[in-house]
């Protein structure tokens, strides 16, 4: 059995992917046509050629612009369904997905439209292929805390269907501390909370996420390696990191997968998980990320199994369901 076959066979959860980052080029072109949205690219090839990014901001510019092809509930349904089916093919049994409503409501698409499409696809995927999923709403960190609260209030009619809240977007210059009151509110009301930190930003942002925001998982967290005391805290608490290796490569967070800190983080005793982030933009779904790391970092089968187990243990599903997934 090849390492790729072994990885494909492992049941796993995916905990860090953005629904808007999973629109494959054919669907992107189809949605642009269907909704008569003007785009800069005439063909799929031209679109794919634009997927070269200097850094996170260069990616975010294209990503937010790309969101314009999502207009109707059916569009949000189609992209969510396509992701969940594709993830199921990678033996993902459970997915906790990110969605950034502000990127849609700010251009006049109602939150109801967005959520109705996404929830319908989640229900269908569970019924059709058995994959369970949850939805985490992500506030954009370049916006104000007041806007995050606004998103929160708008989402309350669907509170029973929302797994939690997160923080994403342009990291440097927008520290977690900016959202301390927002996260306290989310936690007080019983939502799970996570935040992107230590992707381009420093270890101090990871520390703030854990200590000020009280996050249950850190999204990315690469920079943790720069702070030995922080590493010990993360290991002690078993705070999961949702690491995204191919994303880090595409956004020049690492110079190569060989130089990726994933194994060092595992060796420091952290609960590391592997995820795809924005699979259609970064050239790989979750298994591709596992395979790239196994090859480049020489991970043993035992280590690969540990990563897959971690993904289930770091998920927000109840323990009984975790046991089913393992
Ligand atoms: N939104 C989508 N992908 C992201 C990433 N890699 N970092 C921060 N925000 C994001
Ligand atoms: Zn992300």
From TrEMBL:
Gene3D superfamilies, A to Z: Metal-dependent hydrolases
Annotated active site: 199 (proton donor)
Site label Important for catalytic activity, positions: 220
Superkingdom to which the source organism belongs: Bacteria
Domain (Adenosine deaminase): residue spans on this chain: 11-326
Keywords (A to Z) from UniProt: Hydrolase, Metal-binding, Nucleotide metabolism, Zinc
One of the GO biological process terms: adenine catabolic process
Binding-site residues for substrate, renumbered to this chain: 278
Binding site for Zn(2+): 16, 18, 196, 277
Enzymatic class: hydrolase
One function term, GO molecular function aspect: adenine deaminase activity
One family name in Pfam for this protein: A_deaminase
GO CC terms: cytosol
Cofactor annotation comment: Binds 1 zinc ion per subunit.
Sections of the chain in a coiled coil: none
CDD domains membership: ADA
Keyword Metal-binding found: yes
The family this protein is said to belong to: Belongs to the metallo-dependent hydrolases superfamily. Adenosine and AMP deaminases family. Adenine deaminase type 2 subfamily.
Role this protein plays: Catalyzes the hydrolytic deamination of adenine to hypoxanthine. Plays an important role in the purine salvage pathway and in nitrogen catabolism.
Protein name as catalogued: Adenine deaminase
Organism of this sequence: Ramlibacter aurantiacus
């Amino acid at each position: 059995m090849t390492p790729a076959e072994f990885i494909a066979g492992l049941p796993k959860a995916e905990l860090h992917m953005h629904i808007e980052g999973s629109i494959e080029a054919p669907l992107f072109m189809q949605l642009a046509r269907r909704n008569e949205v003007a785009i800069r690219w005439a063909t799929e090839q031209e679109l794919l050629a634009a997927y070269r990014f200097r850094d996170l901001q260069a990616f975010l510019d294209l990503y937010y612009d790309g969101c314009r092809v999502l207009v109707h509930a059916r569009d949000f349904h189609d992209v969510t369904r396509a992701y969940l089916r594709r993830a199921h093919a990678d033996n993902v049994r459970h997915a906790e997905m990110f969605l950034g409503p502000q990127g849609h409501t700010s251009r006049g698409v109602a939150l109801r439209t967005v959520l109705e499409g996404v929830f319908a696809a989640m229900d269908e995927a569970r019924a059709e292929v058995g994959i369970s999923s949850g939805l985490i709403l992500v506030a954009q960190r370049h916006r104000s805390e007041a806007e995050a609260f606004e998103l929160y209030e708008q989402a309350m009619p669907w509170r029973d269907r929302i797994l939690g809240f997160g923080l994403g977007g342009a990291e440097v210059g927008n520290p977690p501390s900016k959202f301390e009151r927002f996260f306290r509110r989310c936690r007080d009301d019983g939502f799970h909370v996570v935040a992107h930190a230590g992707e381009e930003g420093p270890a101090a942002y990871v520390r703030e996420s854990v200590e000020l925001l009280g996050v249950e998982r850190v999204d990315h967290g690469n920079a943790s390696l720069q702070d030995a005391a922080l590493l010990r805290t993360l290991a002690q608490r078993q705070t999961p990191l949702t690491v995204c290796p191919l994303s880090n490569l595409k956004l020049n967070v690492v110079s190569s997968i060989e130089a990726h800190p994933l194994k060092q983080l595992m060796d420091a005793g952290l609960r590391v998980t592997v995820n795809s982030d924005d699979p259609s933009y970064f050239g790989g779904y979750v298994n591709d990320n596992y395979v790239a790391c196994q090859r480049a970092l020489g991970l043993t089968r035992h280590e690969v199994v540990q990563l897959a187990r971690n993904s289930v243990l770091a998920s927000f599903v109840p323990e009984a369901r975790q046991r089913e997934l393992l």
